[in-house]
Amino acid sequence: MSTSSLNRVQRFVTHDFTVRAAAVDATAVVREMQVLQGAKALPSLAIGRAMVGAMLMAAQQKQGHQVGVYIRCQGPLRAIYAEAHFEGQVRGYCPMTHYEPENYNNEYNLKAAIGEGSLTVARHQPFQKTPHQGTVNLVSGEIGEDIAHYLIQSHQIRSLVSVGVYLDAYGQVRSAGGVIIEVMPGVEDQIIDQIQKNADSHLVPVSQMLFDGAQSVDLVKPYFQGIPFMELEHNFPLTYTCPCTKDRVVRALETLGLAELEDMIRKNEKADVTCQVCGRPYLIEIEELTHLKNHLYKNSLN
Ligand SMILES: [Zn+2]
Question: E-strand spans in 9-148?
């Protein structure tokens, strides 16, 4: 399933090429994820931030590259997954998509919903079987800082990462997006000091800025105040895209086991399966269930 939006990740670089940035208004794709999955407030916040982080990192790679962000955590959300392609396709998922705390206490406490855990970032390149993977412990549970922590630990890249999802009082996504500033080797101290100074004085959260009508470039400007920069070409519209297929869904039915499958076939029950990531419905016919059952039966004899 794929729908297009006009948004794209925009890339920027300082005139001396020592600091690069990417920024995105991801409201449309994060909202689409929430609608497709019927996700509650906190899972939407977590999935949305992970999606934005994956988009920002993927846009800094090369054509055909893909970045996966995987958080395993001890909090009630248990896990959060997002993946994004250089060319703008993105999707996200959390197994606890309907989780709600007993009481919100007038705030969306993402830290509490995530708790302790780890962040794995996987970079997939074309023609490479195994992705480059790095795992770090969560340092903040707010996802942005955790990604910055990963970049310094795994790639020795100093960065500022801000990802945000703005939810209304009903838990609906009103805006989402983020910005990443990455410092390359050879940068002058003076530029680092200026960016740090800018960052320290810049306190408006990105999701708030987007909600108030900011464009992607407006997310970058506060960090680059006093430093000349320009935009790099990266013309790929963001799309919420899930590569699920009927084949994969049928294979997932194997987990039901032989007895359950035989029962369905006996009762002449077709299987109605919905992909949890994109909401696409699949109807599995009796012949397909029979085929799967025979396959499972054969395997059980070995
Ligand atoms: Zn799907």
Answer: 10-14, 19-25, 66-73, 79-85, 89-93, 117-124, 132-137
Neighbours of ion ligand 1 (CB under 5 A): 242, 244, 275, 277-278, 280
Tell me the C-alpha distance between 14 and 283, whole Å: 52
What residue ranges do the domains of the chain occupy?
2-241, 246-301
pTM of the model: 0.90
Distance 150 CA to ligand 1 centre (A): 28
Cα-to-centroid distance, 89 and ligand 1 (Å):
13
Who's near 251: CB < 8 A, 6+ residues apart? none
Is there a contact between 98 and 55 (Cβ–Cβ < 8 Å)? no
List strand residue ranges (DSSP E) for 184-279, in order.
229-232, 237-241, 271-274
CB of 14 within 8 A of CB of 228?
yes
Cα 20 from Cα 14, distance rounded (Å): 6
DSSP H or E stretch at residue 113? helix 110-114
pLDDT tens, position by position, 57-68: 999 999 999 999
Q: What would the pLDDT profile of 257-292 be if each residue is shown by its tens digit?
A: 888 889 989 998 888 888 888 888 888 889 998 999
CATH number for the domain whose boundaries are 2-241 = 3.55.30.10
Do the two domains 2-241 and 246-301 of this chain adopt the same fold?
Answer: no
Architecture category of domain 246-301 in CATH: Alpha-Beta Complex (3.90)
Ligand 1 centre from 241 Cα, in Å? 8
Hey, is 58 helix, strand or coil? helix
How many angstroms does the Cα of residue 225 sit away from the middle of ligand 1? 42
Tokens of 144: 């942005």
